[in-house]
Amino acid sequence: MCIPKKISSSMALLTMDVETLSIPKQSISVLAERLAHVVTDWNVNYHYINFNLGAKKPFDGNCQDFVNAVLDQLEITPTFSGALGS
Predict the structure, then answer these.
(1) Is the pLDDT of residue 2 over 70?
(2) Are strands 47-48 and 60-61 parallel, antiparallel or unpaired?
């Protein structure tokens, strides 16, 4: 189960459309299992924070941290060009 937060752009710092991501060749069931692992880990172990003025605690995370965890688990490395890539 993944419980998304309410969609709001009040805290958005940067958004962009990503046209293509290269996903390593794996069966859909393997990808689903790996995604389920990340979702379960975050639902059980992480505490959602919008922002923090101090250092993050080990199991504090936000939406970008979750996306990064998903990309890492699925072995997807996004590459950006232009100003974002710099």
Answers:
(1) no
(2) parallel
